[in-house]
Every structure is written in structure tokens, then in C-alpha cells.
Amino acid sequence: AEPTPPPGAGPSRSRSPAIRRTSSHRLLQFSQELKAGVSRAKQISQDLTKRFTRTQSRAALAEPPQPPPAAHPPSGIESALAARAERRQRAQLDRTKSTAQRAIKGLRFISGNTKASNNAWIEVQRNFDRLALDGRLSRADFPQCIGMMESKEFAMELFDTLCRRRQMQSDHINREELREIWSQITDNSFDSRLQIFFDMVDKDADGHITEAEVKEIIMLSASANKLARLKEQAEEYAALIMEELDPEGLGYIELWQLETLLLQKDTYVNYSQALSYTSQALSQNLAGLRHKSPIRKMSSKLSYYLEDNWKRLWVLALWIGIMAGLFIWKFIQYRNRYVFSVMGYCVTIAKGAAETLKLNMALILLPVCRNTITWLRNTRAARALPFDDNINFHKTIAAAIVVGVILHAGNHLACDFPRLIDSSDETYAPLRQYFGETKPTYLALVRGVEGVTGVIMVVCMLIAFTLATRWFRRSLVKLPKPFDKLTGFNAFWYSHHLFIIVYISLVIHGERLYLILDWYKRTTWMYLAVPVGLYVGERTLRFFRSGSYSVRILKVAIYPGNVLTLQMSKPPTFRYKSGQYMFVQCPAVSPFEWHPFSITSAPGDDFLSIHVRQLGDWTRELKRVFSAACEPPMNGKSGLLRADENTKKTFPKLLIDGPYGSPAQDYSKYDVLLLVGLGIGATPFISILKDLINNIIKMEEEDEASTDLYPPIGPSKASVDLDTLMRITSKPKRVFKTTNAYFYWVTREQGSFDWFKGIMNEIAELDQRVTIS
């Protein structure tokens, strides 16, 4: 039997290197979870490393403990203390700005969502007045007072720690004491947060942290960060921490070790694994790259930039060149006309801007012709045109339209009209054919057809442009009722339909132009004919196609994080690629609104599925109407609301339209995939992962089938089987380029992983070749 380790000794030192490497890497995983995504990369340069001297108070706290008095102190304890003291002297803490900031992020859970601002303290005072009826706030009400109700257990532990530091025995505090505690909680300095963290762990205030105390703080921090699975493994992680930070086997760790771990995690933790030859060679190559001259660095950056953006650059250059050409053409044209002597450069600039407006009002419709773009993605045009940037190009054109409107309308209203009105009768005489026998007044010019249509267009475009900005579309602007209806996706959606009025006014405005008499010189309709016709055709196609796609709701589930999953029947003619999206309309919510959602089912599935997260008014209402059709969990077995087609309640009707192309649909062109998803943004990758596995399995089955079809060709059957063999060998072999996929999914809460739990389990079961990691 193995000898029992002496009391107080650390974990067994007889572990194999492989086990220690595994433990160290698991410790690293814990450190990442605890520090909420702190970077694992080592510091390339430590030129800014600074030594520092601790204050006397902290030095006293971190001073190595003296062995307990005994008649015969064991020599092992003395050697362990000496080894730790020597290791402490060797520890060189990096307190550069970047390192300290990362360490502070690792301790940010201490203050939760609290903010060190006057407004925040005012809110805390209001909560204190409401909760502390007798002028004293109880421990139970402390989390609600400081706004940490989601981490109530952690907040009360924080209360106990700060009261213990002040040697307060009562479970109630007054306003002054709350103010002092609040200032400590909202102190974002590394030293303050580290001391609070250490005090929370060190319950007996002896300056030592034992394994039991480490386990308790892991459970508290897991609760504060909503890491349910980490809570379940708290004991295991506590043992790993003690094994790594307490190699001497003293049974406790000290403040300086915790500080070193947070500031220099990668240099302090011994991963017990030497670099491979490949890693060493790569490090040497990277070291050589760091000594490039400034010119070489600049040329490299320029080369990479051109390689990544050459499609965007040539399209933008062509577009700007065409606008410049049209502007110069009109500028020169009116520079050589008589009207220039009356209105000067104002009219040349206004007319030049008007010509660019015609072009841009036509082009702005093309990036939102989604069916056309989806079709073009599959042609050779995709090699030269950046279809992935269609919405960005749409926004860029909108910005150019704003500039054009300012130049055109501004010069007309502020310069051209006043100069025309102030002109003499002799100067005005050649212009009577355009403005009438009598010189018009300023009001007459504005009230004319040209002026009225121009004002209507400017007002409509101003409304649509404002409500389409990020602040209004995402409800970042908080307006009082009833003006709050002007924010959100609904306001953006409906205001954008003012373009119908804009284009009607634009055609009328273009047909009643001043200074032009010949109809063929009024070219507005020529610019608009093809783009408007194409866009109207697309909207008509959507109307009829959505009616032909009949879908039936098969399953509904509502997951933590306000995520609604809809599984519906797949129309026979609905064919799509992984990574594409479709538009969904629910008449029970709104008979006019269509919203895009990534398709999370694979093309090989016999159903369609989408995952919808509640982010706005429309998605909130959609979740409500489907929640009403779901049945509550039976016997409290699950907290999820679920329903299927066998449910007695009737599901709301859904209409779909699509599919539409997206950048992710071309994943099969690449050998290795790196998929990075944030929250609900991982939806297109779920379809890709499932489709990837389905394609690999299908390819393997085809290979096996083709092998079975080759019959043995003997002398007597050679002539008979020759035709069969030729048909088999002439059939093109299915080739799937992608060999590996790496999927990284980052969420705020661990409960979010339940969104795709069933799909991911299915993928893991089918992935026998470990293609996905």
C-alpha cells in the first residue's frame, strides 16, 4: 500500500509528467474562465518590466509564516519555507499598463455591474432610502441596494468581507458605512481589487489561503459569473490551483503568489512541457520578423491591406471616378452657358451635384436587390465584386447622397435663387424662356413644382436617414413616451418605405427642371429605369414566392437567454446552402414586417430551423405569441417551454422568403475553417458544421458504394462487364475540399450553450474522424 502523506503536506509529488501537464493545462482553463477571457498570449517583450516595493502593510501580510513552535521542528517544513522564500525573491512582477489592465479584468467580477460615478452613487442612495427604513441597511438588502441582485450570494459575501475588514460585527450598516464600502467596491485599481479578493478567500484573516477557502471562492465567483459547470468542478480546480501554486507542499498560498499568478500567469505557472522543435523554429522565425525596417513593415502592411481589400478598392475607385466625371461634365457645361453670368459658380456646383444624385439614387437600390446578388454570388462576377459588402456600399452611397443634397439644394436656395431675383431686367431677359416673362419671387420659386418636390424629397430622406442610424435603429437613444416609437427596428423599417414618395417626387422633379427645355436632356428617368424596375421586380417576386412557400410549425422551444427556436417543415422547392439566411414574417405580430434570420438546419435535413433571440419589439412579440402556444414543463422536470405539432394549441402562422446569400455560404471552398461566433451570431456556423459532417459522411458512403460496384473481371465476363465498368469509371468522383473546422463560440452565460446542445451532440456523435474541434 502507498504511504499516507503527512498532515499539512501538499498533493502527491509522484505524479507523472503527463498527468502534471494535463493538470497544468486544466489550471490554465480555469484561469481563463475565472478571468473572463483574459488573453493567453505570452508577453513578447518585457522591456517595460518594473520592479516595485510593497508597502509595509502588504509586506507584513505576505511575509512567510513562521513554523509553529515545537520541540523538534521538522526539517522538511524549514526547507519548504526556504524554497518558497527563494521563489518569491525570483518572482519579477510585470506591472506594465497592459498587464495590469488584463489582471484588473480578471478581478472585475468583484464590482459586478457597479460603476464608480456620481449618478451610480445617487441611485445607491435612493435604494438605501427605500430599503433602510430605520436608517440602517440590512445584509439581506445589500445586494439590491448596490444593484447586484443577479449575484446575491456573492454580494452578501462581499458585504461580510468588507465588514470583517472594518471589524464590524453587526449585520446592518448606516449611510456613512455604505459610502465607505461603495468606494472600496468601485475602486478599479488592481491593488484594491486584489486585496478584496484575498480577504474574501482568507476567512480567518491569517494571511494564508487554504484549499478549502480556494474552493469556496471558486464557487462564489462562478455564481457571480453564472458559470454553473465551473461550480460543479470547484473542488477539482481548487486542488489543481494548490498543486501548481504550492509545490513546496505547505498546504496554503499567500497574497504575493496570487498577485504573481494574475500579473504573470504564463511565466509563473510551470506547464511542465518543453517546446517542440517546430515551436522553437517558429519562435525563431517570428523573432526575425520583429527586426524589420520601417519601410519593410509599411510595405508588408500595404501588401496585406491590398490583398484583403482589392475588391472594395477598385469598386470604390470606379464609383468615385464616375461621380467625378459626371460632376466635371455638368460643371463645364453650365460654365459655358449664359446662366453662369447670372448665378455664377453656384449653378455649376448645384448642377454637378444634381448629376451625381441621379447616379446615386439609381445605384442605392442595387445593393438591396438580394435575389440578384444571391444569383451573382454563384457566377464569375463574385471573383471581382465584393458582394459581402452590399449593405456597407448601400450606406456609403447614402452618405454621398447626403453630401449631394446639401450641395444641390444649398446652392439653389442660398445662392442661385437670390442672385436670380436680384438680377437686372436686362440680365434676366435671356432667362425668360425658363422662368417666365415676369421675374419670379423667392417664394414663387420655392412654391413651384420643382421646389415643392425638392422639399418633400429632402424631408423624407432626412427622416429615413436619421431613423436608420445605429443609435435609433438599435434603440440606443432613449426617448420619452410616445416618442419612443421613433426608435427600434420598426421605425427603421417603416420610415424606409418613404422611398416610394421620394422616387415619385424625384421623377416629377426631374421632368420639371429649370434651364432645360428638350425632353431627351431630362435624364433622370434614364438613370432610374433599370434599377427601379429590378427592385420592383424583386419585391413582386417576394410577394408571390412567400405565398407559395407553405410551412408548418413542427417544434418550438424557448431556451435561457430569451432564445426562441422554431422548427418548421421544408417546402419542396426551397433549396439553400449552409450559411444562408431567409426572411420570416408572422402575421400575428405584424402583417408587413419581414425580418432576416440565419438558417440553422443543414441543407440535407428534412426541416428548416431558426434561432431567434429577443432583442427588439418584434422579436419580443414573436416570443410572446409562441410562448402562449407552448406547454409548461411537466412535474418540473425542465424549465424549458416546449411544444410540437402534436400540441393541442394552434401555432401562429409563419411566412418565409428566401434563401439569400451570405459570406459564410462559400465555406466549402476552403481546406480549413476557422469559425468564430459571439452569442446568437453563431447561428450560421451551426448549419455549416452539420452540413460539413453530412457531406463527409455522404462522400465516404459514395466511395464505399463505388468500391462495391466494381465486379471481379474474369476472362469469361470481361466483355459482359466492360460497359458497366466504363459507366462507373466515367462518373466524376465527389470531392469535398474542407478537411478540418475549428469552432470557437463565446457567450456571456454558460446557459447559452443549451441553445444548440442537441445539434452539437448530434454533430459530435457523427464526427468519427474528429474533423471538428
UniProtKB/TrEMBL annotation:
Keyword S-adenosyl-L-methionine tagged: no
Superkingdom in the source lineage: Eukaryota
Transmembrane intervals: 313-332, 452-472, 492-517, 672-689
Residues in FAD-binding FR-type domain copies: 546-666
GO molecular function (one): peroxidase activity
Keyword Phosphoprotein: no
This protein's UniProt keywords: Calcium, FAD, Flavoprotein, Membrane, Metal-binding, NADP, Oxidoreductase, Peroxidase, Transmembrane, Transmembrane helix
UniProt cross-references to Pfam families, sorted A to Z: FAD_binding_8 (PF08022), Ferric_reduct (PF01794), NAD_binding_6 (PF08030), NADPH_Ox (PF08414)
Annotated PROSITE patterns: EF_HAND_1 (PS00018), EF_HAND_2 (PS50222), FAD_FR (PS51384)
Membrane topology type: Multi-pass membrane protein
UniProt-annotated location(s): Membrane
CDD domains from the UniProt entry: EFh, NOX_Duox_like_FAD_NADP
A GO cellular component annotation in the UniProt record: plasma membrane
Domain EF-hand: 189-224
Region (Disordered): 1-20, 34-76
Family in the record: Belongs to the RBOH (TC 5.B.1.3) family.
Protein name: FAD-binding FR-type domain-containing protein
